[in-house]
Amino acid sequence: MSTATALAGRRIVVTGAGRDFGRTLAVRLAASGAEVFLSARTLAAAEAVRAEIRALGHEAVHAFVCDLTDSASIRACAAAVAERTDHVDVLINNGARWLTGPDLLAGSDDDVVDTIASGATGTILTVRNFLPLLLASDRPDVVTMVSACGTAGHDRSNAHDAFYAAKSAQAGFGEILSKRLRGQGVRVISLYPPDFDNADPLSDEWENTPREATDPLTAQSVVDCVLFAITQPRDCFIKAFHFEQV
């Protein structure tokens, strides 16, 4: 199966798709034949990525606003997607606020609340609100971009403690969700990458980035892991991808 048709007909929701790795996912999923429902904290950001993808000739892409710190916004996003489709095949929980600083006193109380709300509560509520659409699919997958920060004992990131807490919550949620949804045919897949290089998927750099054993992990390889997992036969439940950190 070619890359351009690997996901033909799949309907995929990507949160946090307005920039960085979420944008990369949206671009590559569309290139693989998926119909992409992308969301971002602002509608303008989602629409900008939609325009980029449509300029490449992929018309099956839709833009929505979804503030992962706002339960009403998450519900409204899921309802808006439900107006466009009767099912969703894949939900990718990519959106989460990054907060830097290995000093607990760095940042404000509001920064801490926002970080945990977007990564932890936001992920749970997104799955909760999209679950009816996923259960209407004959091949439902939930993919969560956790982070090595969600791995017990990891201490090699300069992320703030609140980011570690949010990612640990995502990890715990994915662990129990995988067990509880398997009986309904839903695969729950968590990825735990360390910090990785994210080249612009529309640039020459995307094709030319070194990917040897001594090189840092790349977005290309992380995307490849996602594509691999969601295109496996339904008897293949890949629960997690863990990556060595160079």
UniProtKB/TrEMBL annotation:
Its EC number is 1.-.-.-. InterPro entries: NAD(P)-bd_dom_sf (IPR036291), SDR_fam (IPR002347). It holds the Pfam family adh_short. Keywords: Oxidoreductase. GO terms for molecular function: oxidoreductase activity. Gene3D superfamilies: NAD(P)-binding Rossmann-like Domain. Belongs to the short-chain dehydrogenases/reductases (SDR) family. PANTHER family: PKSB, RETINOL DEHYDROGENASE 10. This is SDR family oxidoreductase.
